[in-house]
Amino acid sequence: TTHDLMGIVTTGSAITASLPAASSFDPGQRFTFKDVSGSCSGSNHIVISASAYSSAGNRIDGQGIVKIQTGYGAVTIASDGVSSYYIVGTN
């Protein structure tokens, strides 16, 4: 909860980052996940998982996962502080 930028190196394999329940964060708290190595691709992608997701919520724009599949790509996600995450930016 104290960091908002996650620099991720994807050399060698796919990486999964798991988010806790959205209620763990303040409303509007943002997180940016960024491929800092430039090696993100179809097989070496970054998966951001709403690990607490269910049919009742804790999804990312309605999905259980979001992937970054391009070199130096990034996605910024915000919590509503209750039960959902929203994508607020991509690169």
Any descriptors?
three-stranded mixed beta sheet, mainly beta
Verbal overview:
This protein has 91 residues and is an all-beta fold. 0% of the residues lie in helices and 43% in strands. Strands 1-3-7-8-5 form a five-stranded mixed sheet, with no helix packed on it. It is globular. The two termini are 23 Å apart.
Instruction: Summarize the biggest pleated sheet.
Output: 5 strands, mixed
Helicity level: under 10%
Q: Alpha-carbon distance between the termini?
A: 23 Å
Bin the strand percentage.
35-45%
Structural class: mainly beta
Write a brief caption for the model.
This protein has 91 residues and is mainly beta. 0% of the residues lie in helices and 43% in strands.
What topology emerges from the helices and strands here?
Elements: E1 5-8, E2 15-19, E3 30-35, E4 46-50, E5 59-60, E6 65-68, E7 74-79, E8 84-90
Parallel strand pairs: 1-3, 2-4, 5-8
Antiparallel strand pairs: 3-7, 4-6, 7-8
